[in-house]
Amino acid sequence: MEAEALQKPFDIVIFGASGFTGKYVIREALKFLNVPSSPLKTLALAGRNPDKLAQSLRWASRPSDPPQLPIIKADVADPSSLSSLFRQTKLVLNCVGPFRLYGEPVVAACVDAGADYLDISGEPEFMEKMEIFYHDKASGVGSLVISACGFDSVPAELGVMFNSRQWVGASAPNQMQAYLSLESDKRIVGNFGTFESAVLGVSSAGNLQEMRRMRPRRPRPVIPGPPPSKGSTIEHQKQLGLWALKLPSSDAIVVRRTLASLTEHPHGLPGYNERDDHVEKRKSFWSAVKPAHFGVKIGTKSLFGILKIILTGISIGLFGLTAFGRRLVLKYPEFFTGGMFRKTGPTEEEVNSATFKMWFVAQGYGDVGVASSGSKPDTEIVTRVSGPEIGYITTPIILVQCALTLLGERANLPKGGVYPPGIVFGPTDLQQRLQQNDKELDDCLLSYYLTHLGKTAGILYQSRWHYVVTQISSYFHWHLEKELIYLDSSLSFH
Ligand SMILES: NC(=O)c1ccc[n+]([C@@H]2O[C@H](COP(=O)([O-])OP(=O)(O)OC[C@H]3O[C@@H](n4cnc5c(N)ncnc54)[C@H](OP(=O)(O)O)[C@@H]3O)[C@@H](O)[C@H]2O)c1
After folding, report:
1. Rounded to a whole number, what is the largest CA-CA distance in the chain?
2. Do 76 and 106 meet the contact criterion of CB atoms below 8 Å apart?
3. Residue 427 and which of 337, 339, 436, 451 are 20 to 30 A apart at CA?
4. What residue ranges in 301-370 does DSSP mark as E strands?
5. Tell me, what's the pLDDT at 338?
6. How far is the CA of 385 from the centre of ligand 1 (A)?
7. Is pTM beyond 0.70 here?
């Protein structure tokens, strides 16, 4: 496999590089092209319109002149154009969506060509379909196919693993609820591509259920204690100061797939030519991950914000059900979403001013032995992942860092197969890469915040480059905002 890979002229092809997200992905990839420590030495751009690709490259290179990169025409509707392109590359970064419409021929051609594949899909039906139809072949030919390598769903996957690894000794989580909060002093806007993917997702929700019914059930992880109750539709999360509502994103589904893989392979997935030290690292990483019931909610500071999200959800849900309704909402996305999605996408200013925080509130048992006696969870651990704007900054950063991890650590990863990102990248240095990204990207790191509520309360805050840990001996009932200020102002504390 390595000998073949060496003969390929490109390390990475960005497919769909002319799209709204694609151009941001080019910009991110250029930062690592031909940098001495980077495994990315050769990069090509591909899509159906070479002029648009060249325009995206000019945009992504500003203020410098664009570098000389191969620009290759390839169209999803012409599978031979995909096959000949993918035979020339080690790795394809697929930014062509909606994935349910355009994704399968790309995966099929990658697997045929024996190339590795990452994408930024947030569409569970597409991901599960690829797993069903291409896993065996991809495993055989040595093509690693990993969807959801963007904001969907790497922060959720890393966030769940990070929180679950804080439950040390006899303690164990039972349930983990993520609260996503999007913040900006400008409008928070998504591009049409994401909106179209969401609308089409509503219309084919039944297909996903049908597909699952036809598959053999995968093993479920053993989680101590009873499953959590459903709770109210709108939750007032007082600790975080958020009104919250279930978010029908792909995160919980992707995390569940990773936990199912982990149940099947308790030591994780062996690399095809793994170094001994990595075998140890992988085993010790996964032995510390304790599964929990997981869900995601979107949170806003005001009840009005949640009501706006509900109205948008109802309008997409209702109109998405019929062909006429879909045509209507897809024609006027701004009107039907109260400005949350725009045909022209967000402005650069809007992108640059947005950030996200994702809190992971986990409840479980200080001593897992009491779980079987029917006791209620007695311990809570809260962690946080945060970063810049989700769609066009965080997503390209994550996709490119997944790509660099894959190129740099290929022998430590499975030979091939279709997997969610967590089970493949969990024991790699992806989390560190995202935290350290690069010095210009101080605002682009994912920072982690952790606090325990329990008998021995402790606070651990991971700042940009180092940990600050304080141990406090008495029960610590906290107000979150206050604690953050306290922690932020005590970075020199050890
Ligand atoms: N995971 C996340 O958090 C996240 C974040 C951002 C985006 N996304 C997803 O990424 C996808 C793209 O979003 P976007 O906003 O970038 O959409 P977009 O601006 O519409 O871009 C779509 C891209 O697909 C290309 N394309 C369409 N049909 C094609 C075909 N037949 N052959 C080759 N290329 C074709 C387009 O080429 P042309 O330029 O020639 O039209 C364009 O490059 C969506 O599914 C979205 O949900 C996910």
Report:
1. 67
2. yes
3. 451
4. 341-342, 355-365
5. 85
6. 26
7. yes
Amino acid, single-letter form, for residue 99: F
Q: Is the pLDDT of residue 467 over 90?
A: no
Among 132-146, 225-239, 339-353, 469-483, which stretch is predicted with the lowest mean pLDDT? 469-483
Q: Calculate ∠ Cα 364-365-366, nearest 5°.
A: 130
Q: 74, 94, 87, 84: which is closest to 141 by C-alpha? A: 87
Q: In the predicted model, is pLDDT for residue 466 greater than 70?
A: no
- Ligand 1 contacts CB of residue 333 (under 6 A): no
Handedness of CA 357, 194, 430, 295 (dihedral sign): positive
How much distance in Å is there from the Cα of 276 to the middle of ligand 1? 40
Q: Dihedral through CA 430, CA 436, CA 442, CA 444, nearest 10?
A: 0
Of the pLDDT bands very low, low, confident and very high (cuts 50, 70, 90), residue 2 is low
CA distance 65 to 109: 33
Could you tell me the two tokens for 146? 């990993």
pLDDT tens sequence across 34-70: 999 899 999 999 999 999 999 999 999 999 999 999 9
Region 163-175 average pLDDT = 91
Determine the distance from the C-alpha atom of residue 179 to the mean position of all C-alpha atoms in its chain, rounded to a whole number. Answer: 15
| Higher per-residue confidence, 468 vs 377 | 377
For the record, the structure tokens of 115 come out as: 């190339």
Q: Sign of dihedral through CA atoms 270, 418, 156, 22?
A: positive
Q: Which of 460, 464, 429 is nearest to 446 (CA)?
A: 464
CB proximity list for 270: less than 8 A, separation 6 or greater: 279, 282, 414
Q: Which structure tokens are listed for 73?
A: 């025409």
**Residue 241 zone, left/alpha/beta (φ > 0; ψ -120 to 50; rest):** left
Q: Does residue 396 have its Cβ closer than 6 Å to ligand 1?
A: no
Three-state SS for 491? coil
Atom number of ligand 1 nearest to Cα 122: 1
Q: Closest Cα to atom 6, ligand 1: which residue?
A: 391
Mutate to test the pocket of ligand 1, among 13, 48, 59, 356 (most ligand atoms within 8 A of CB): 48
Neighbours of 217 (CB within 10 A): 8
